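Quick one, tokens below:
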């Protein structure tokens, strides 16, 4: 039976449990087909600092390209990876959250160049290979071990109560698909993310030399409706880019919004930061969002505590005294 064992008893956990009780039992339960929950990925389901996992993968691809084409070394984003100073990449993400997408557009043009003409199955295998060996750059553990244990429990808890859970992320849809079932229990067909264009040629689906859409901000509600055909009942996010999705769900008369606040300064592996979440934090009270304090609401962040030997699987522990 799924429970919220990694959550501390307190107002946030109680709000979640009371919401689930209200929409699944009593005189007016929400029909099972309308119990749809959507979760952002980076910073909501796993850690995103010091850089998002997808950026780690992309850096490896751009490094190989820059080695093959040295003339690119003085232009971004290749300049960042060749110099080893990745602050430009992190800054591009932060600038986008603040409303300036100029550097993000530079990144997207380079991303499209990475995959143009590639078979979609070959890309999925490349991502799977990355996750078999890649380790978090500061915690030195496999990426499956930087998944937030309380949020995986929440996914299972909602599923047990008849919810269909989706991931709705600004991250690349096809980068997430190979690992979401294993890491979160969410099958690949329920992953909604940004997308490079696709084309069909000679019996194969290939990536086109174009970008289709960036699934962030006001694009998220559009993509939720286009994929699901229902206004979700539950949403969880952590950044300014999730604000429209959270507001969209809260306009459902019985909708519930959850905002993860990265305020943990206890050395448990997820640093405290508000950058990129300022607007969401400021709007939380007005929207009636339930606020998750990682510092206070989570008894543990990861399945294994920071400092234990990294492994390929999950273990127990991680409680903070």
């Amino acid at each position: 039976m799924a429970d919220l064992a990694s959550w501390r008893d307190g107002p946030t956990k109680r709000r979640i449990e009371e919401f689930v009780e209200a929409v699944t039992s009593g005189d007016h339960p929400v029909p099972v087909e309308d119990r749809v929950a959507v979760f952002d990925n980076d910073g909501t389901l796993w850690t995103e600092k010091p850089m998002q996992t997808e950026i780690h993968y992309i850096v490896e691809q751009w490094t190989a390209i820059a080695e093959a084409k040295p003339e690119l070394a003085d232009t971004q984003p290749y300049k960042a990876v060749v110099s080893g100073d990745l602050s430009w990449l992190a800054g591009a993400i932060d600038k986008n959250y603040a409303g300036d997408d100029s550097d993000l557009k530079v990144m997207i043009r380079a991303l499209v160049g990475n995959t143009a003409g590639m078979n979609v199955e070959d890309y999925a295998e490349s991502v799977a290979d990355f996750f078999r060996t890649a380790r978090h750059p500061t915690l030195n553990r496999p990426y499956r071990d930087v998944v937030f244990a309380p949020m995986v429990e929440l996914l299972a808890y909602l599923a047990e109560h008849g919810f269909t859970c989706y991931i709705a992320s600004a991250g690349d849809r096809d980068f997430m698909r190979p690992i979401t079932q294993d890491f979160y229990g969410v099958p690949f067909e329920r992953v909604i993310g940004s997308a490079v264009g696709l084309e069909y040629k000679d019996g194969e689906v290939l990536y086109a030399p174009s970008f289709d859409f960036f699934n962030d901000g006001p694009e998220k509600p559009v993509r939720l409706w286009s994929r699901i055909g229902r206004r979700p009942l539950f949403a969880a996010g952590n950044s300014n880019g999730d604000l429209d999705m959270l507001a969209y769900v809260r306009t459902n008369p019985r909708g519930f919004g959850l905002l993860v606040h990265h305020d943990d300064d206890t050395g448990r592996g997820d640093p405290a930061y508000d950058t990129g979440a300022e607007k969401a934090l400021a709007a939380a009270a007005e929207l009636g969002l339930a606020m998750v304090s990682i510092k206070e609401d989570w008894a543990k962040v990861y399945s294994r505590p920071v400092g234990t030997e990294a492994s390929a699987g999950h273990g127990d522990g991680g409680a903070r005294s």
